[in-house]
Design a protein that fits this description.
Chains A, B: GO terms for molecular function: RNA binding. Chains A, B: Pfam families: ANTAR, NIT. Chains A, B: It comes from Thauera propionica. Chains A, B: This is RNA-binding protein. Chains A, B: InterPro entries: ANTAR, CheY-like_superfamily, Nitrate/nitrite_sensing, WH-like_DNA-bd_sf. The structure is a homodimer of 438-residue chains. With 438 residues, chain A is mainly α. Chain A folds into 2 domains: 287 residues, no CATH class; 54 residues, Arc Repressor Mutant, subunit A, CATH 1.10.10.10. Helices cover 80% and strands 0% of the residues of chain A. The first copy, chain A, contains 18 helices and no strands. In chain A, helix 1 runs antiparallel to helix 2, helix 5 runs antiparallel to helix 6 and helix 9 packs across helix 10. The radius of gyration of chain A is 27 Å and the shape is elongated. About 8% of the residues of chain A have low confidence. The interface between A and B is large, with 68 and 67 residues.
Amino acid sequence: MKTALAFLLAARRCEIDDLERLALSCELVQAVSELVHQLQRERGASNVFLASDGARFGAQREAQLDASRAAEAEVRAWLDRPELGGERAGASVLGGARLFTRIALALHALDALPEVRADVAAQRCRPDAATARYSEIVGALLALVFDAADVAVDPEVSRLLVALFNLMQGKEFAGQERALGAASFAAGHPAADAVQAIQYLVEAQSQCFRRFEAFCGVEVLRQWQALQSIMPLAELERLRRVLLASGPGAPLDSARAEGWFACCSQRLDQLHEVEVALARGLGEACARKIAATRDEARNQASLLQALSAASEPRAPLEMLMGGELADEAVPARTAPGAERVEAPGAEPLGPRLGRSIVDLLHAQSQRLQAMSDELDAARAALEERKLIERAKGLLMSCRGLSEDEAYRLLRQTAMSQGRRLAEVAGATLALADVLARP
Amino acid sequence: MKTALAFLLAARRCEIDDLERLALSCELVQAVSELVHQLQRERGASNVFLASDGARFGAQREAQLDASRAAEAEVRAWLDRPELGGERAGASVLGGARLFTRIALALHALDALPEVRADVAAQRCRPDAATARYSEIVGALLALVFDAADVAVDPEVSRLLVALFNLMQGKEFAGQERALGAASFAAGHPAADAVQAIQYLVEAQSQCFRRFEAFCGVEVLRQWQALQSIMPLAELERLRRVLLASGPGAPLDSARAEGWFACCSQRLDQLHEVEVALARGLGEACARKIAATRDEARNQASLLQALSAASEPRAPLEMLMGGELADEAVPARTAPGAERVEAPGAEPLGPRLGRSIVDLLHAQSQRLQAMSDELDAARAALEERKLIERAKGLLMSCRGLSEDEAYRLLRQTAMSQGRRLAEVAGATLALADVLARP
């Protein structure tokens, strides 16, 4: 018969298990963040290559393909880990079904890469089409990071994952801004709704970076702030102003395309430096948490052992733990000693030990409660995106739109009404019944 | 190298695993609900036994002890299941650390039973003290059911668990009402704040039963409504009126104690019938879901196999699944056939199969999203209790109160201000900073 103490210790072990699975997810997130960065660079180089009819960035693009492939290989190496195969695969990651489905979607998106690259190399597609195809792949990878953040189980690590997701998402908006702006400058005039779209992307970036700042922790925040002073922000704002002031009557100077691209790229690379620091911090936070939880579990066990030795000289810790360790250490479950420990009427644990167990139980229960509250707070920062995803899903199923069409519809509505995307998504969901009507 | 398809199938397997772990939790919940019922009966019999100075219910109480012990043995048998021992214990239940901590708290509470029983047998304690000690044990068991409901992963099963928890909680309020009323009638006048407390318990019951009705499903609801017609509700309301109208100037007829007790007990037993039906439905729902998910996974695999046979005659399903099944079935990972399947540029899957995988991926992703939304909706019904638990925790840590004192303070505040307990809890939490000040 297992005792309360056995389950108290088993709960600790679960915490350690959960942290180890979280550390595994964080490794995937690190690899994915590197791959996203390389694909963003590849997208940018492909864009210039196509826009210049193959005259520029040919060599850069070739070199970039190698870097992208290396980053993809890292992600695939993670996916090939032996613990992710076989019957127990679900138990080795957090949020099994959800994360695996996201991985499947991301892998499927990545499967499109060779074809996109071939089309770019043969100059078979327009720059904006290539950008859109790369962006779809990056979107699938970002969704994976989002879900990893949403299923995380430790408040500190969750906060860092929320920060990293928002940094990556903000950087992706910056990458899309680069592409749109470069195309506009190169063409000598902004494309159809490019001005509105750039305004939206600028606003979306600042929202993401605000959330990133709220969750990234003191150290990364300091690095981020130091970086602001060397980022080409003044130049970026000047070029944005030129871009936004342009219109059918005010053509853009196409010679500025290069300056715009260089300025945006420099900023993206600097954002990536913060990303790398944050990803490293993620791994360290996991390791630190695992070590701390192991230490606490050991201290807890020693405390109980000391107390049990004091109040019951012949009761070693193994016996105290009842069924659990007894299964391994004591031949028969009904060993008289083990029985004695479990007869609470007789208080064989001794009052001090009994009291300590109660204290440990209540402390553990309150700690788990506090952790769960903090987790909820970190996850709340992910709610907006969930609203948007749900609204997209609704539009796809009720109006038969593709994912991209649904997103554009939401974004255009937000832009034209001057409302935030999440507000429009919330309003869409509130109209679910109306939309579902045939 | 693993394919998107391998992770699509792995996600399905995770869903089945999760459902199996949910089924295991449901078995615990069933055993716990039976134990709670027996302890409620034991509490009632002990109450009468002590109030009559041992003159009444002696034999009933003895018989009840056997029933209680049998129900406790069922719970302990579940806890002794081999999958709950050893290193992988955390992976065999949902919400590992949290559920195990609750189990430890419940076991610790149960450890007090022999002493309570000995005190009752020797008539060493007052009826209200015995009631309070039993209620604490029942409270720990209810908290376990609550957490099992809160960590459940299937919307349909979650709804049933939320219904069962609310039915059990409502029934426990009914049991506390029985004890308070019995003591008041027996004493010939209501105890200090018994009138207010009974008003609170009546209101709390109706809240719980409303939530139960919202989640229990059509079939149990029909049984519940049929039962209402044979429950002694008119008699109960009449006796409640007598009780609530009494005061220092209006003594109670102590001869009515028996009628009150019998009427309340009959109702509790009838509530238990619904509980049993609901618990049975829970097991059936789990089994049904597991079977359906297995079928779906099989159909999905057959569909893909059929499609792969049509578009690629020599590609069996095993090969399609890439690394995952290849590990078991194909000797070398770099088998040329397997390689071919993975080169997406060449579209070796054939357009139909490629399209099917995309459809399956999107359908699975949307289904998981819809499930998660439904789950959130079911869990929202548990939010009130979480608020109350958090407010209790805050008062305990900031004001140094015991759990019971914290609860009484919240309840008294709610009663005196005519507000709902959850409102008072919310207001308490909003004042966290003020309360935390030394």
